[in-house]
Amino acid sequence: MSQSPIIAPSILSADFADMEKTFKMLNESEADWIHLDVMDGNFVPNISFGMPVIKSLRKLTGKVFDAHLMIEKPERYVHNFKLIGVDILTVHYETQIHLNRTVDLIKKVGMKAGVALNPHTPVSLLKDIIADLDLVLIMSVNPGYSGQKFIEHTYDKIREAKDLIADNDSKALIEVDGGINDTNAPKLYAAGADVLVAASYIFNHDNPLKAIRNLKYFGK
Ligand code: DX5
Ligand code: ZN
């Protein structure tokens, strides 16, 4: 485990009319990755943004692009996301019939592969694929919107995922997404989370740079 969590701000709560300003702040910040929430209005009720937007944003930063696909049949777009500069591609377990095939494809085209779990989806379902994953994304809210309340059961899921990863000699990182703030961040890190995603805590803060620092260094 590193000394501090990887911080992945989600731009879902940022001002879409001024992405230059947002990325100027993110580039100056201690954010490690940029979390991109792609929603299709089918898998989740909300619609966010897609490929053309991500392609334009790629020009604004050299930071890692961590795309979280909340869309049906995400396997259709794996090549497209590689072409527009995504580094880590995460699909939802609940969208997949042939998860092994999709994970192989993501890695074959040259991206890291992640699998996301809805709050009701057990970690144990990843047993036969965990060794092949680069990332497990544990949703700590129901996907679809930023600004929702953190689900406390997440801590147990993180500990379970940590054990599953160790038992299978997997190198997968554990990412947690939804309702994260400066109060639960240290507890999530202590439970075994490697990557913390946050949208509203960062972008609704008076000082987003400080908010990012609070998540990474717990106010120290
Ligand atoms: C929710 C998204 C999250 C969201 C997090 O479906 O996957 O990444 O932007 O927002 P907050 O941090 O406000 O819960
Ligand atoms: Zn997300």
What does this structure look like?
This protein is of the alpha/beta class. The chain has a single domain, classed as Alpha-Beta Barrel (TIM Barrel). The protein is 31% helix and 20% strand. It has eight helices and eight strands. The chain has an eight-stranded parallel sheet. Strand 6, helix 5 (154-167) and strand 7 form a beta-alpha-beta unit. The model has no long low-confidence stretch (mean pLDDT 97). Bound molecules: D-xylitol-5-phosphate (DX5) and zinc ion. Residues 10, 12-13, 35, 37, 68, 141, 143-144, 146-148, 177-180, 197-201 line the site of D-xylitol-5-phosphate. Zinc ion (ZN) is lined by residues 10, 35, 37, 68, 177, 197.
List the main descriptive attributes of the protein structure presented here.
alpha/beta, TIM Barrel, 31% helix, binds zinc ion
Mean pLDDT: 97
Assign the CATH architecture.
Alpha-Beta Barrel
Name the overall outline: globular
Number of domains: 1
Please bin the fraction of helical residues: 25-40%
Largest sheet: 8 strands, parallel
What is the third-level CATH name, the topology? TIM Barrel
Produce a short descriptive summary:
It contains 8 helices and 8 strands. It is an alpha/beta fold and 220 residues long.
Write the layout of secondary structure elements.
Elements: E1 6-9, H1 19-28, E2 33-39, H2 51-57, E3 64-70, H3 78-83, E4 88-92, H4 99-108, E5 112-117, E6 135-139, H5 154-167, E7 173-177, H6 185-191, E8 195-198, H7 200-203, H8 208-217
Parallel strand pairs: 1-8, 2-3, 3-4, 4-5, 5-6, 6-7, 7-8
This protein binds D-xylitol-5-phosphate (DX5) and zinc ion (ZN).
D-xylitol-5-phosphate binds next to strand 2, strand 8 and helix 7.
